[in-house]
Design a protein that fits this description.
The chain is mainly alpha-helical. The protein has two domains: 1-55 and 311-401, no CATH class; 61-307, no CATH class. The protein is built from 14 helices and two strands; from the N terminus they run ααααααααααααββαα. α2 packs parallel to α5 and α8 runs parallel beside α10. The protein is globular and about 65 Å long.
Length: 401
């Protein structure tokens, strides 16, 4: 789940543990916190017992879980600046850089489609053997990252910062009437309080049919086409803040700029949210501003921490997560589906259950309180993946596309 890596990610596999400057350490820490949060949110022991902050908002609103994806897209935008900026400085041609951007975007989309299809076949009674392929969901998280990365990186390479800000503003402003005022071609009145009566839902149903997220089939897809406008705005916000980090300004000035901009973005998102609700599934403009402000503030705080005595050491666990974000995203998804769907065991009652259920019931459920037990299971996943990533870090191994 990554686009352009920051400096640590560019080291060869045989190198020692990666090193980086404080400004890009702040980026890795933000990305690491985001990916660790993703594992925490996506892997409860029992989906029926999840603390409210770790659940997505039912529709309008924003919880901790709703901060994960936009924070990562924001980090993708930030990382575009050092990665492609350094390549330009080394003399790479525009054609070479655009080709590189396209290859990486297509690789992310391909990986996303593979994850959507995994395990490719199913042996569930009553379902077609190739149901995972026949019912393949076309949109998805990595697909959206690939598209937003390609668009934002192309704008970074071919336009001025002023033009990029104009595109950002255009995305935010144009999306509002598209979602709130445009009736659907089938004559439906727009209503963003509903889960399907708007242009975003109509486009998803028309273009993707049943190849959307199973929980919203017939309504919309949370990573659908029209809502990518808001997601692109989030990525371009990251590019704008990446320029601040990459500038020659003194660190104190960078910190001040990031903190002020973060506060202004959150305020703008909150105010706009009173008339254009903060909503993750639709990725509304107010949601893009609100979450972009939080991500900007987080980046500022990590920048401050990275420049304190021993700051790099305290941020090391997050950095270890951040430099191998794609591996964690793909690996955790594959492992969770393998033990949750493919491997089954026989329980004490003689009934078949997944290996995940067996582990949870045998190790974590006895802890007592079901919400706490479910959280403990998720935290165990976070710890397990940190151990794996630490071993890779020690060997300087980073997986990127």
């Amino acid at each position: 789940m990554t686009a352009e890596p920051s400096e640590p990610s560019s080291l060869p596999e045989s190198s020692a543990a990666p090193r980086t400057t404080s400004r890009w350490l702040a980026l890795d820490a933000l990305r690491g916190l985001t990916i660790a949060g993703m594992i925490l949110v996506n892997n409860p022991g029992d989906w029926g017992h999840v603390y409210a902050p770790l659940r997505h908002a039912a529709w309008h609103g924003c919880t901790f879980a709703d901060l994960v994806f936009p924070s990562f897209l924001f980090a993708v935008g930030v990382a575009i600046v050092p990665a492609l900026g350094r390549a330009k400085e080394r003399g790479a041609s525009l054609a070479e850089l655009l080709s590189r951007v396209l290859r990486r975007a297509l690789a992310l989309i391909a990986i996303g489609l593979f994850l959507a299809a995994f395990p490719l076949i199913t042996f569930v009674e009553g379902r077609d053997l190739f149901a995972p392929l026949l019912e393949l969901r076309f949109p998805g998280v990595l697909q959206r990252i690939g598209v937003c990365y390609a668009l934002a990186a192309t704008l970074f390479l071919t336009t001025s910062p002023r033009t990029q800000l104009a595109v950002l503003a255009g995305c935010l402003l144009a999306y509002w009437p598209l979602l709130g005022l445009c009736p659907t071609p089938d004559g439906g009145a727009p209503d963003w309080n509903s889960k399907g009566d708007h242009l975003a839902g109509w486009l998803d149903r028309t273009l993707f049919g049943d190849h959307v997220w199973s929980s919203t089939r017939g309504l919309y897809d949370p990573e659908g086409l029209l809502s990518t406008i808001g997601a692109l705005a989030t990525t371009l916000l990251g590019v704008a803040m990446g320029r601040v980090l990459a500038s020659s300004r003194p660190s104190a000035e960078k910190l001040q700029l990031l903190l002020v901009r973060g506060a202004l973005l959150m305020a703008a998102g909150a105010v706009w949210g009173s008339v254009f609700p903060i909503n993750k599934p639709l990725w509304t403009s107010s949601y893009a501003l609100w979450t972009g402000g939080i991500a900007t503030s987080g980046l500022a705080l990590f920048l401050l921490a990275s420049e304190r005595p021993r700051g790099a050491r305290w941020l090391r666990p997050l950095q270890i997560y951040g430099v191998n974000a794609l591996l964690v995203f793909v690996g955790s998804a594959l492992l969770a589906r393998t033990i949750g769907r493919l491997i089954t065991v026989t329980g004490a009652d003689g009934k078949s259950l997944s290996l995940q259920q067996a582990l949870y019931r045998g190790v974590f459920a006895p802890l007592g309180e079901p919400y706490l037990a479910s959280l403990a299971y998720a935290l165990a996943w976070v710890a397990m993946w940190f151990g794996i990533l630490w071993l890779l870090w020690r060997r300087g191994i980073v997986w990127k596309v």
